[in-house]
Here is the input.
Amino acid sequence: MPSKPQKRKSVTISDEGETEPVAKKANITMTPSSKFRKSSDFAKLMQKCYDSPRVIVEVEGSNFTLPKDLLCDFSPFFDRAFNGAFKEAIEGKVTLEETNKTSFEHVIHWMHMGSIAVPDPAVHDEKTFNEVVKEYIGFFVLADRLGIPGPFTVDMQSLTSTLRRGGYTVSKENMRQGTNLPKNHPVRQLLADSCIGEYVYSLTEGLGFRLEEELEELDGFGYDILMAFQRAAKGNMEYDHDGLYIEDPLHKGNAALRIRLY
Here is the structure.
Protein backbone atom coordinates (compact mmCIF):
# COMPACT_ATOMS: atom_id res chain seq x y z
CA MET A 1 0.00 0.00 0.00
CA PRO A 2 1.28 3.49 -0.81
CA SER A 3 2.31 5.62 2.11
CA LYS A 4 0.09 8.53 3.04
CA PRO A 5 1.22 11.61 1.12
CA GLN A 6 2.47 14.52 3.16
CA LYS A 7 0.12 17.44 3.45
CA ARG A 8 1.42 20.36 1.42
CA LYS A 9 0.19 23.62 0.00
CA SER A 10 -1.70 23.09 -3.24
CA VAL A 11 -0.34 24.78 -6.33
CA THR A 12 -1.41 25.20 -9.92
CA ILE A 13 0.80 25.65 -12.96
CA SER A 14 0.41 28.85 -14.96
CA ASP A 15 0.94 29.09 -18.71
CA GLU A 16 4.51 30.32 -18.10
CA GLY A 17 5.31 27.24 -16.02
CA GLU A 18 5.48 29.10 -12.71
CA THR A 19 3.61 28.00 -9.64
CA GLU A 20 1.09 30.14 -7.80
CA PRO A 21 -1.02 29.55 -4.66
CA VAL A 22 -4.51 28.19 -5.03
CA ALA A 23 -7.19 30.70 -4.04
CA LYS A 24 -9.17 30.17 -0.87
CA LYS A 25 -12.50 28.40 -1.24
CA ALA A 26 -15.12 30.66 -2.75
CA ASN A 27 -18.42 30.84 -0.92
CA ILE A 28 -20.71 29.42 -3.59
CA THR A 29 -24.42 29.45 -2.81
CA MET A 30 -27.13 27.76 -4.83
CA THR A 31 -30.26 29.56 -5.95
CA PRO A 32 -33.00 26.92 -6.28
CA SER A 33 -35.59 29.36 -7.63
CA SER A 34 -33.50 30.45 -10.64
CA LYS A 35 -32.31 28.51 -13.66
CA PHE A 36 -28.69 29.54 -13.20
CA ARG A 37 -26.52 30.69 -10.33
CA LYS A 38 -26.43 34.37 -9.48
CA SER A 39 -23.82 36.34 -11.44
CA SER A 40 -21.70 37.01 -8.35
CA ASP A 41 -21.70 33.33 -7.37
CA PHE A 42 -20.94 32.27 -10.93
CA ALA A 43 -17.97 34.65 -11.03
CA LYS A 44 -16.62 33.17 -7.78
CA LEU A 45 -17.05 29.69 -9.17
CA MET A 46 -15.22 30.54 -12.39
CA GLN A 47 -12.35 32.09 -10.41
CA LYS A 48 -12.21 28.94 -8.33
CA CYS A 49 -12.06 26.80 -11.46
CA TYR A 50 -9.29 28.98 -12.90
CA ASP A 51 -7.16 28.81 -9.75
CA SER A 52 -7.65 25.13 -8.97
CA PRO A 53 -5.18 22.37 -9.87
CA ARG A 54 -6.45 19.91 -12.46
CA VAL A 55 -7.34 16.27 -11.97
CA ILE A 56 -8.54 13.61 -14.37
CA VAL A 57 -11.79 11.64 -14.26
CA GLU A 58 -12.01 8.72 -16.68
CA VAL A 59 -15.47 7.69 -17.87
CA GLU A 60 -16.04 5.06 -20.57
CA GLY A 61 -12.46 5.43 -21.78
CA SER A 62 -12.62 9.23 -22.06
CA ASN A 63 -10.48 11.44 -19.83
CA PHE A 64 -12.05 14.61 -18.42
CA THR A 65 -9.50 17.13 -17.10
CA LEU A 66 -11.33 19.18 -14.47
CA PRO A 67 -10.71 21.60 -11.59
CA LYS A 68 -10.07 19.57 -8.46
CA ASP A 69 -11.70 22.13 -6.14
CA LEU A 70 -14.89 22.16 -8.21
CA LEU A 71 -15.28 18.39 -7.93
CA CYS A 72 -14.35 18.22 -4.25
CA ASP A 73 -16.60 21.10 -3.20
CA PHE A 74 -19.73 19.55 -4.68
CA SER A 75 -19.02 15.83 -4.24
CA PRO A 76 -17.97 14.03 -1.02
CA PHE A 77 -16.99 11.10 -3.25
CA PHE A 78 -14.40 13.16 -5.12
CA ASP A 79 -13.31 14.90 -1.94
CA ARG A 80 -12.42 11.55 -0.35
CA ALA A 81 -10.74 10.31 -3.52
CA PHE A 82 -8.58 13.34 -4.27
CA ASN A 83 -7.90 14.54 -0.72
CA GLY A 84 -7.52 11.19 1.03
CA ALA A 85 -4.69 8.69 1.38
CA PHE A 86 -5.65 6.74 -1.72
CA LYS A 87 -3.69 6.25 -4.93
CA GLU A 88 -6.22 8.50 -6.70
CA ALA A 89 -4.99 11.43 -4.60
CA ILE A 90 -1.38 10.70 -5.52
CA GLU A 91 -2.05 10.12 -9.21
CA GLY A 92 -4.69 12.83 -9.52
CA LYS A 93 -6.96 10.48 -11.45
CA VAL A 94 -10.21 8.64 -10.73
CA THR A 95 -11.87 6.05 -12.97
CA LEU A 96 -15.65 5.86 -12.65
CA GLU A 97 -16.72 2.31 -13.43
CA GLU A 98 -20.19 1.51 -14.78
CA THR A 99 -20.83 5.19 -15.46
CA ASN A 100 -22.51 6.66 -18.52
CA LYS A 101 -20.49 9.45 -20.13
CA THR A 102 -23.59 11.53 -20.87
CA SER A 103 -24.66 11.35 -17.22
CA PHE A 104 -21.22 12.52 -16.12
CA GLU A 105 -21.32 15.41 -18.59
CA HIS A 106 -24.65 16.45 -17.08
CA VAL A 107 -23.11 16.35 -13.58
CA ILE A 108 -20.26 18.64 -14.68
CA HIS A 109 -22.75 21.01 -16.32
CA TRP A 110 -24.76 21.09 -13.09
CA MET A 111 -21.65 21.89 -11.04
CA HIS A 112 -20.99 24.91 -13.24
CA MET A 113 -24.51 26.16 -13.94
CA GLY A 114 -26.73 24.81 -11.15
CA SER A 115 -28.92 22.86 -13.58
CA ILE A 116 -28.51 20.45 -16.48
CA ALA A 117 -29.34 20.95 -20.16
CA VAL A 118 -31.17 18.02 -21.73
CA PRO A 119 -31.83 18.88 -25.39
CA ASP A 120 -35.41 18.97 -26.58
CA PRO A 121 -35.65 16.36 -29.38
CA ALA A 122 -36.75 17.47 -32.84
CA VAL A 123 -39.02 14.43 -33.13
CA HIS A 124 -41.55 13.76 -30.40
CA ASP A 125 -42.51 10.11 -30.12
CA GLU A 126 -42.39 7.47 -27.40
CA LYS A 127 -38.81 6.46 -28.21
CA THR A 128 -37.37 9.98 -28.03
CA PHE A 129 -39.52 10.75 -24.98
CA ASN A 130 -37.94 7.84 -23.10
CA GLU A 131 -34.45 8.81 -24.30
CA VAL A 132 -34.94 12.22 -22.67
CA VAL A 133 -36.32 10.66 -19.48
CA LYS A 134 -33.35 8.27 -19.43
CA GLU A 135 -30.92 11.22 -19.46
CA TYR A 136 -32.63 12.82 -16.48
CA ILE A 137 -32.70 9.58 -14.48
CA GLY A 138 -29.06 8.84 -15.33
CA PHE A 139 -28.06 12.26 -14.03
CA PHE A 140 -29.97 11.87 -10.76
CA VAL A 141 -28.61 8.36 -10.16
CA LEU A 142 -25.01 9.49 -10.70
CA ALA A 143 -25.47 12.64 -8.61
CA ASP A 144 -26.74 10.46 -5.76
CA ARG A 145 -23.83 8.06 -6.17
CA LEU A 146 -21.36 10.96 -5.97
CA GLY A 147 -23.09 12.34 -2.89
CA ILE A 148 -24.09 15.64 -4.51
CA PRO A 149 -26.77 17.12 -2.21
CA GLY A 150 -28.42 19.50 -4.68
CA PRO A 151 -30.73 21.35 -4.65
CA PHE A 152 -32.14 20.03 -7.93
CA THR A 153 -35.29 22.15 -7.99
CA VAL A 154 -34.93 23.28 -11.61
CA ASP A 155 -34.10 19.80 -12.88
CA MET A 156 -37.03 18.24 -11.02
CA GLN A 157 -39.32 20.83 -12.59
CA SER A 158 -37.90 20.04 -16.03
CA LEU A 159 -38.37 16.28 -15.61
CA THR A 160 -41.92 16.82 -14.32
CA SER A 161 -42.74 18.98 -17.35
CA THR A 162 -41.31 16.33 -19.69
CA LEU A 163 -43.44 13.59 -18.13
CA ARG A 164 -46.57 15.75 -18.20
CA ARG A 165 -46.39 16.93 -21.78
CA GLY A 166 -45.07 13.71 -23.24
CA GLY A 167 -48.31 11.76 -23.15
CA TYR A 168 -46.32 8.52 -23.30
CA THR A 169 -45.63 5.77 -20.79
CA VAL A 170 -42.24 5.59 -19.09
CA SER A 171 -40.38 2.53 -20.34
CA LYS A 172 -39.64 -0.49 -18.18
CA GLU A 173 -35.93 0.21 -18.59
CA ASN A 174 -36.34 3.70 -17.15
CA MET A 175 -38.50 2.45 -14.29
CA ARG A 176 -35.82 -0.10 -13.43
CA GLN A 177 -33.10 2.54 -13.59
CA GLY A 178 -35.11 4.75 -11.25
CA THR A 179 -35.05 2.09 -8.53
CA ASN A 180 -31.28 2.61 -8.25
CA LEU A 181 -32.17 5.76 -6.32
CA PRO A 182 -32.87 5.60 -2.57
CA LYS A 183 -36.41 4.96 -1.38
CA ASN A 184 -38.45 8.16 -1.04
CA HIS A 185 -36.17 9.96 -3.49
CA PRO A 186 -38.36 12.55 -5.27
CA VAL A 187 -37.49 11.14 -8.71
CA ARG A 188 -38.69 7.68 -7.65
CA GLN A 189 -41.89 9.26 -6.38
CA LEU A 190 -42.33 11.15 -9.64
CA LEU A 191 -41.85 8.02 -11.75
CA ALA A 192 -44.38 6.15 -9.61
CA ASP A 193 -46.83 9.05 -9.97
CA SER A 194 -46.47 8.85 -13.74
CA CYS A 195 -47.85 5.30 -13.93
CA ILE A 196 -50.67 5.47 -11.36
CA GLY A 197 -53.25 6.15 -14.07
CA GLU A 198 -52.47 2.97 -15.98
CA TYR A 199 -52.10 1.00 -12.73
CA VAL A 200 -55.59 1.96 -11.52
CA TYR A 201 -57.02 1.34 -15.00
CA SER A 202 -55.58 -2.19 -14.99
CA LEU A 203 -57.26 -2.85 -11.64
CA THR A 204 -60.68 -1.46 -12.52
CA GLU A 205 -60.77 -3.12 -15.94
CA GLY A 206 -59.37 -6.45 -14.77
CA LEU A 207 -56.36 -6.15 -17.05
CA GLY A 208 -52.74 -7.05 -16.46
CA PHE A 209 -50.52 -4.20 -15.29
CA ARG A 210 -47.74 -3.35 -17.76
CA LEU A 211 -45.18 -3.24 -14.94
CA GLU A 212 -46.33 -6.38 -13.12
CA GLU A 213 -42.92 -8.00 -13.49
CA GLU A 214 -41.22 -4.93 -12.05
CA LEU A 215 -43.60 -4.98 -9.08
CA GLU A 216 -42.46 -8.50 -8.27
CA GLU A 217 -38.75 -8.17 -9.02
CA LEU A 218 -37.63 -4.65 -8.09
CA ASP A 219 -36.90 -3.88 -4.48
CA GLY A 220 -39.19 -1.11 -3.28
CA PHE A 221 -41.07 -0.58 -6.55
CA GLY A 222 -44.32 -1.94 -5.11
CA TYR A 223 -43.87 0.43 -2.17
CA ASP A 224 -43.39 3.33 -4.60
CA ILE A 225 -46.67 2.51 -6.37
CA LEU A 226 -48.57 2.11 -3.10
CA MET A 227 -47.31 5.44 -1.77
CA ALA A 228 -48.16 7.17 -5.05
CA PHE A 229 -51.69 5.75 -4.92
CA GLN A 230 -52.12 6.89 -1.33
CA ARG A 231 -50.93 10.40 -2.20
CA ALA A 232 -53.43 10.54 -5.02
CA ALA A 233 -56.31 9.20 -2.90
CA LYS A 234 -55.61 11.61 -0.04
CA GLY A 235 -55.12 14.55 -2.36
CA ASN A 236 -58.52 14.97 -3.96
CA MET A 237 -61.27 12.34 -4.12
CA GLU A 238 -64.54 13.12 -5.86
CA TYR A 239 -67.85 11.37 -6.46
CA ASP A 240 -70.25 11.94 -9.32
CA HIS A 241 -72.92 9.97 -11.18
CA ASP A 242 -70.22 8.09 -13.12
CA GLY A 243 -68.29 6.85 -10.09
CA LEU A 244 -65.41 7.68 -7.77
CA TYR A 245 -62.40 9.64 -9.00
CA ILE A 246 -59.01 10.57 -7.60
CA GLU A 247 -56.62 13.22 -8.85
CA ASP A 248 -53.89 12.12 -11.24
CA PRO A 249 -50.77 12.75 -9.09
CA LEU A 250 -48.68 13.65 -12.14
CA HIS A 251 -51.10 16.43 -13.15
CA LYS A 252 -51.91 17.99 -9.80
CA GLY A 253 -54.37 20.84 -10.00
CA ASN A 254 -55.72 19.87 -13.44
CA ALA A 255 -59.33 18.91 -12.75
CA ALA A 256 -59.76 17.53 -16.27
CA LEU A 257 -57.25 14.76 -15.61
CA ARG A 258 -58.75 12.36 -13.11
CA ILE A 259 -58.49 8.63 -12.47
CA ARG A 260 -61.74 6.68 -12.28
CA LEU A 261 -61.79 4.10 -9.48
CA TYR A 262 -65.14 2.57 -10.47
User: Anything to note?
Assistant: The longest helix spans residues 126-145. Confidence is low (pLDDT under 50) at residues 1-36. Residues 13 and 19 are 5 Å apart (CA to CA).
